[in-house]
Amino acid sequence: MSVASTDWDLLSSYAGLLSLACMSIYAGSHGSLSVRPSHFSSRITRTPSVEAEEEEDEEEVERLSSQDAYLFPVIGSAVLFGLYLIVQYFGKEWITWLLQWYFTIAGVGSVGKSLIALSRWTLGTSRWHKFDKVQFLILKGRRGTSSPFSLSLSLRTPSLYLIPVGSIPSILYTFGDSATRRSALLTDLLALSFSHNALSLLKLDSFKTGCVLLSGLFLYDIWWVFGTEVMVKVATSLDVPIKLLWPKSLTFSTERGFTMLGLGDIVIPGMFVATALRYDYHKAAQQQLSQVSRVYFFTTLSAYASGLIVTMSIMHLWKKAQPALLYLSPACILSFILLAIARGEFKDAWAWTDEVDDKGEPKSLARSPSNGKVQEHNSSSSMGDDTARSTEASLSVEPEVVTASNTKKRLRKKHE
């Protein structure tokens, strides 16, 4: 192909989608790191902001296990085929209307959470905790009983402004005119926030689970894209913000349409990349290193980018849509396996789990420092102090929902 005949408009749209996808996975992976008790706690300097952060513990979400991974393609197939039957025999109007309302409500919270996470990361944890904390309590039963609180919602004052701002994209997408609703900017804002929060909250418990998940969805994607018309029919019929769009133009003109990448092709491999990042921090804790290399993270992220480039290249040459997981799944799995074997760590990496113990605390480390650095513990710190926390910023998600048991623990600490 000569330089004169090169379609730079189309190539720029591929580059734009690639950048958005990688940026989303990078942010979401760091958002999956949690500030939590760990073996690092004895080497972290306690500061007033650390103690303030301890009062805002986020409850650890349960990890996805291998059993969940085996069921994922089955449940996904059932949902996809159900949507296909609805569109085929009942029309797409009412199901599109229903899903649009669902994603409108979800989008308000999702964009709001992403704005809070971005603000917290930008300002830094210490500055973020200087803002006043507003707490909303839902009371259940009488005070003085064993469980007077059923739900607690804690927000820093900037969050009270960021959440309403986060509702703007959803409102415009739902209630705007047809041109506004088809805006790639609004679609991408909503889709990126969904991706960021999904990667922050959905966590695999091990590389083994990740390999099972990617392998199952590898077959899922091949069957529903190449074997039937189901995937294409559903994807082109439903007008909901679950995809990234980039105009096929250097000047962002929409005359030629858009290139598209589904959120599933970001979130599913992104969960594997996020697991690699948490494993990097586990290795740093295990070896008592003061800096995290993030070698598994950058290797799997690079493999994802390479797989996406291959997908786009084949799509460009064949002029036909491709199931991205056909290329992304092998790229991510092979990058992890080859790197682990090359470093002589495959047995340890395959056996490692990021599960939560009976106390709700992860069995292995996954903190969120900035620039991969770990603070050293002050030797004069008391071993009887509460578990220390890192003071560095993370793309963690707020507002937080605290269970009654956590609230009771904090009340006891204050009385003590």
What does this structure look like?
With 416 residues, the protein is mainly alpha-helical. It contains 15 helices and 5 strands. It has helices spanning 8-31, 48-54, 66-90, 93-123, 125-128, 157-175, 178-181, 184-201, 207-227, 230-237, 264-286, 295-318, 325-342, 346-351, 404-415; strands at residues 133-139, 149-156, 243-247, 258-262, 400-402. The strands form 2 sheets. It has a 3-stranded antiparallel β-sheet. A two-stranded antiparallel sheet has the order 3-4. Helix 4 packs across helix 8. The termini are far apart. Mean pLDDT is 78; it is low at 35-57 and 365-416.
Poorly predicted runs are 35-57, 365-416
The residue-averaged pLDDT reads 78
- Name the overall outline: globular
Binned, the helix content reads 55-70%
The sequence of SSEs as H and E is: HHHHHEEHHHHHEEHHHHEH
Number of helices: 15
Distance between the termini: 75 Å
Rg of Cα set: 23 Å
What is the topology, as strand order, of the major beta sheet?
Answer: 1-2-5
Number of strands: 5
Structural class: mainly alpha
Q: Indicate the proportion of strand residues.
A: 5-15%
**Biggest pleated sheet:** 3 strands, antiparallel
What topology does this entry show?
Blueprint: H1 8-31, H2 48-54, H3 66-90, H4 93-123, H5 125-128, E1 133-139, E2 149-156, H6 157-175, H7 178-181, H8 184-201, H9 207-227, H10 230-237, E3 243-247, E4 258-262, H11 264-286, H12 295-318, H13 325-342, H14 346-351, E5 400-402, H15 404-415
Antiparallel strand pairs: 1-2, 2-5, 3-4
Helix pairs in contact: 1-8, 1-11, 1-12, 3-9, 3-10, 4-6, 4-8, 6-8, 8-11, 9-11, 9-13, 11-12, 11-13, 12-13
